[in-house]
Design goal:
- The protein is α/β, with parallel strands linked by helices.
- The chain folds into two domains: 154 residues, Rhodanese-like domain (Oxidized Rhodanese, domain 1), CATH 3.40.250.10; 143 residues, 3-Layer(aba) Sandwich (Glutaredoxin).
- Helices cover 39% and strands 15% of the residues.
- It has 13 helices and ten strands.
- A five-stranded parallel beta sheet has the order 1-5-4-2-3, with helices on one face.
- Strand 7, helix 11 and strand 8 form a beta-alpha-beta unit.
Amino acid sequence: MSLRLAAVLFAVIVAVSGTTAIPTFAAPWPEQAAREAKQGGYSLVDTAELAHILENGRKPLLLDVRPDYEFREGHIEGAINVEFDLGDDRHAAPAKLDRIRRLAGPDTSRPIVIYCRSLQCIRSAIAAREVANMGYGNVLRYPLGWFGWVAAHPALQSEGIDPIKAGDVFPGCPIWPIEAEAQEYLGLENLNRAFLEAVRADYLLVQFFNSECPACLEGMKAVEQYWNRVQAEPTMRQRLRFVGIASHDCLHDARAFSRRVGIPFPVFTDPDGSVLQRTGYQSLPVTFLLRRGEQGRWVVMLIKDGLGGANRFYRDMRSSVTSGY
């Protein structure tokens, strides 16, 4: 790993220890990215190095391995979209690898640069390893991804949305399709189409995650602890409901993640990330405690951004839900 990459990676790591609103990335990522690169037979590049390659070096094949809808919303100039996902971790589809081979051409020394969303997205690690295994000797992974590139190029940044805070109305969110078990738990009347406002509860915990985000897996362990403690307290169990929202995920991947992790509450999707975007938050995981407000809208009470402060968040959540009851 270059010194510049180490510095950039360090700069985006923020420790979160409470119910604050500071974007964060999982701390092990710099070391993990370097370890994956060594094992996978490829190299890492930082933003400055990638810019130099694109402007001055031999023309690389630049692969954006995010879903097509994310690619359409914005990508590094000159990139070609070849989507990878967790299913490619064991065996990438031959048609996908054949396409990359055609794009790269016969010269196995041609630079191939691969990126996805951010440090927490592992699509680029999977893709870089697979391409290196195809026999290409100059495979480069840009682990900061699209978010890192946008952060370094202000002209690409759209007008920012201030993160929502306690007291703000939570954005509307469609929740469907709805399974029968989820319908009963959430008190919904329509199995085909509903919105978050239709959930019948006094309080609602909303957990945003992504199926390919390692930090989200750790964050879900804390939420499962919340769930178990809530089920053991009649007042909490009666007044509070849980919902998971998989941002930038398709329903298949979200439900596969839910089954693998054993998520005990309903999970829905935010496939284009628009709901998460309207909250003003970008990094995952992020947890919101909502209360029922005027005209049936959900109002934000507490926010936990990142992995730290789980015990404190639960104490604050319990105090909020049980107060005055």
